[in-house]
Amino acid sequence: MKLLLAASVIVILASISLLIGAGDLSLTALLWPQDGQHAAQILLISRIPRTLALILSGTAMAVAGTIMQALTQNRFVEPSTAGTVESASLGLLAVTLFVPDAPVIVKMLVAAGFALAGTTLFLRILRLVPLRSVLTVPLVGIMLGGIIGAITTFFAYRFDLLQSLNAWTTGDFSGVLRGRYELLWVAFALTFLAYLAADRLTLAGMGQDFATNLGLRYRSVVSLGLIIVSMVTATIVVTVGMLPFLGLIVPNVVSLIMGDNMRRSLPWIAVLGAGLVLTCDIIGRVVYYPYEIPIGTIMGIAGSALFLFLLVKGRERLA
Predict the structure, then answer these.
(1) CB 87 within 8 A of CB 147
(2) For 23, which DSSP code?
(3) Closest CA to 48 of 178, 237, 182, 239
(4) Do 261 and 200 contact (CB within 8 A), yes or no?
(5) CA dihedral (69, 75, 77, 79) positive or negative
(6) Degrees (nearest 5) of the Cα angle 244, 250, 254?
(7) Angle CA(297)–CA(240)–CA(141) in degrees, nearest 5?
(8) Measured between alpha carbons, how far is 184 from 53 in angstroms, rounded to an integer?
(9) How far apart are the C-alpha atoms of 277 and 80, rounded to whole Å?
């Protein structure tokens, strides 16, 4: 019942999102014979695809953050604090340099491969670093992401692609139109796959020895989780850019209320992720109306503040 109520809130937010914009899309404009065709085109070509992209991106990125936290057994990890997003951006830059006319699906696959390699490197580094504090894991990820981001920026500068790189890495839904967001349905399918494998991912999050003793193929489950995270991250970066801290905020909030049972919490994580993205996008569109503030900026401010809050609270618990 509570989940149904939360879904109703998402419907309300989606309806608000459909009505906000520089173009007139009121009920009167839709029904008025002279302007109805123009309003209907705005609705079908721009507003509905944008709203669907917001929901799909928020759902997939929140679930991807949950998987990363389970695999690393750390609450402060998500794609933007583990070098995954930066690796996907490097892959997107590479395919732009070597195969500039490649279709979007090829760019997504290359970016996913780079994201998978970057995430695997992050996990290997964690095995070599003495983890005396839970804060060490996100700090390692942030440093790794900074190194990969610096390499990406260097090559983008050398080949005059800095503007394109900034466009890729800044979360922005203003350019989403019909025909330019459909790749996000791949992320939604991967989110559903994560739900099907939720019990196995929960066991994998309890550690290799514990999961193996229960008969779980630990390495296979970890590989599946990494593939889901990498492909989701690449799909979102290629389509709408970076959504920082989304995979950090939502799983932590849901975990505080519902615990760590992934199968039970994933629907709530998906709904809350979609709601947070819709809310941030609406704020970005009304604060400086009729102009827009990119959603990546809004989420970066809110997410970084909450990230610092979680770090401080985590240190207090360990003190």
Answers:
(1) no
(2) S
(3) 178
(4) no
(5) positive
(6) 165
(7) 65
(8) 7
(9) 16
- The ranges of the chain with pLDDT < 50 are 318-319
The amino acid sitting at 263 is R
Is the bond preceding 251 in cis, omega lying within 30 degrees of 0? Answer: no
- State the pLDDT at residue 199: 79
How far is the C-alpha of 115 from the C-alpha of 107, rounded, in Å? 12
Give the global pTM: 0.84
Check: CB of residue 50 under 8 Å from CB of residue 17: yes
Q: Could you tell me which of 84, 71, 82, 66 has the C-alpha nearest to residue 252? A: 66
Q: What residues contact residue 56 under an 8 Å CB cut-off, 6+ apart?
A: 181, 184, 185, 187, 188
CA–CA separation, 63 and 52 (whole Å): 17
Structure confidence at residue 318 (pLDDT):
43
pLDDT for position 215:
75
With vertex at residue 59, the alpha carbon angle to CA 85 and CA 244, rounded to the nearest 5 degrees, is 35
Q: Is residue 108 a contact partner of residue 234, using CB atoms and an 8 Å limit? A: yes
Q: For tokens 């599946």, name the residue.
A: 224
| Confidence (pLDDT) at 302 | 80
Chain segment 125-139, per-residue pLDDT in tens: 888 877 666 677 888
